[in-house]
Structures are given as C-alpha cells and as structure tokens.
From TrEMBL:
InterPro entries in the record: CbiG_hydrolase, CbiG_mid, CbiG_N, CobE/GbiG_C, CobE/GbiG_C_sf, GbiG_N_sf
EC number of the protein: 3.7.1.12
A Pfam cross-reference name: CbiG_mid
Record keywords, A-Z: Hydrolase
Enzyme class: hydrolase
Organism whose genome encodes this protein: Yersinia canariae
Residue span, Cobalamin biosynthesis central region domain: 140-227
Protein name: Cobalt-precorrin 5A hydrolase
Record flagged with keyword Lipid metabolism: no
Domain CobE/GbiG C-terminal: 236-352
Amino acid sequence: MNIVKPESIAVFCLTPGGVRLARRLKTHLPLTCFTSDKLLEPGFLPFNGSFGDTMREAFKQYSALVVVGAIGLTVRVIAPLVNDKMTDPAVVVIDERGQHVISLLSGHVGGANTLTRYLAGILGADPVITTATDVNEMAALDTLATQLDAEMQDFRHAVKVVNQMLVSSQKVGLWWDTPLLAERDRCDTRGFIPVDSLDALPQLDALVCITLRDSLPLPAEQLAALPVYKLVPRRVVAGIGCRRATSLQTLVELLQQQMAENHFDIMALRAIGSVTIKKDEPALHQLAQCWRVPFELFSVGELSRHEQRFPASDFVRQTVGVGSVSQPVAWLMSDGKLVGNTLRQQGVTITLGVSH
C-alpha cells in the first residue's frame, strides 16, 4: 500500500502565486518544491525539462504530488500514468490563491484525502473531497487497512463491496480481536456496527474481523451465511538464525510451520530479522522478498546485551560471536513481546514476537 509520508511530497509551482503559496506550506512540511527557471529561488528546484516531464518523473518517485495550478492541466499530464489506486501516488491540486485544496487521485490508500485536509487546514482553504465514503461521513475499508497497516485476501474486491455497503446504509459489522482492541480508538470506524462478541452477532449484511489469527472463531454456519472479511494487521516479527546456505524452501516451510503453530495468519508477518553476519545470506533476502517484508539486521553487540535472557549455544557463539540469534533478534524487534516457543529444526531457529 502507498502511504503518504511528509518527506516524500513534491510540490509543483507554475506561477509567482504558486511559489508564494509553496513557501507557506514549506514552513509546515519538509517539501520538495519544483518550479520553472524564471521563477526559481532558494529552496526550489528547477523543472527537469518541462513541468510535464518533471511531473511524470516524480509520479514514480514520490508518495504524493501537489500541483499549485489548474486541475485540467494536472489531469492531462497524469492521465497516461494512472495505473492502480493501491500503488499510485496521492495527487492534490491547489488553486494559486489557496482557496481550494482538491483531492484528485488515490484518496484513501494513497492518502490524498488526509493530505488535502491537512493542507487546507494550513491555508484556511476549503478541502474538496469527492470519495463516496467521505462525502457520506463514513469510514472506508481501505482507509482502515492503511491506518492499521493491514492486509486482506482479495483486497481490491473486498474494498469495493464493503465500501459500497457502507454508503448504501447496509449493516457492516466490525469485530476487533482482543489483542488489537487498544488500536481501535486511533482508527476511523464511522458507519461500521461495533461487534463485541462473535458468539452473538446482531443482524448484519457483512462482517469485518480485525485479527492476527489464521482462522476465525466463528461457527461454520455463520461463515457460510454471512460475507466475512478478515483484515490482518502486520504485527508479527520473526527472528531467524540459520546455517550458511540454508535453502529458501526450508526457510519458507519452517516459517509457515512456526506461524501456524502459533495460530498466526501469514499475512500478519511484519518483518524478519537476523544478525549482521547474515547480511549476505541469499535465502533470508529471498524470504523477505517472498513475503514483501523488511529484512532487519542487528549487530553482535546489540544482541549480546540481551542474550543472558535466553539459552546460549557454544557452537553459535563460536560461529557468530553471540550465543543466541533468533531470540534476542525477536526480542529487539518486538520490544520484548515474544510469542510461543523457539523452533529449532534443520539448522534453523525461528522465534516470533508481536509488535504494536
């Protein structure tokens, strides 16, 4: 998912008024501002060729693009580039007098609606947002997924169905698994019907369950009778130690086994980690790519500060420089919130933790 980050916002100024407005915005956000050679001033970068050329280049490099200028011109430039609302950058247009801030592209997942409201607040302008859920003052499934950094099977279809239900006044329930309840207050859930227990469901047209579990505690007859969508926040981290030249297949199978034994959905995986000596271990990099998660590395010094918490191996100490790898790595990645037992098979150790 594409989430707007302040440090990756590009602003395009086409007129002197646009440059003045960008100056105001730069006092609130770390922006990269582009303008023409004749309007160039300190703190601004020149267009690389033309406005269109620079915008097309930035479309692939920035999380959000803000154009201070005409919406028609912006549409003509980006039209050939628009591909997928799950990955396209946010695009926002502001008139040069700063009266209207318009969310043009990737309102939910890309964050254009949120950015529009923020910029409008800075400028004292009117935010113009046209997505149906926002117009009806309701939450959206894709916005909720972004807020939670969550995954879902067949996400695109689920978003289309659930958001349509919400704006059509159908009853969509929302259930939070107990370990995730603390995150409820920071999320926009307007329009969803709170469900406290899966044992006694109210009358619903669909149900969204926020959980890390691999299977839901719902009777089979309810699963068959009601559309149920499982939204899985990425919270599980895996500390991994392995012998040199361990195969990718072995790591995949053992990680899946460890996740299943702890009843975690594989979509809940947020990151894997190991000791720095493993920075060039091909299978670990491939594992991270396979599950589209970061591969984090920790020095022997970092791990040594926590190894007394765990059983140590003389062989591992002689080989790596610290008596344990997977457990202190998972400890650091999860702030000490380890889950289950450490898997030890085929020269591989895997320890899971849950970060919030």
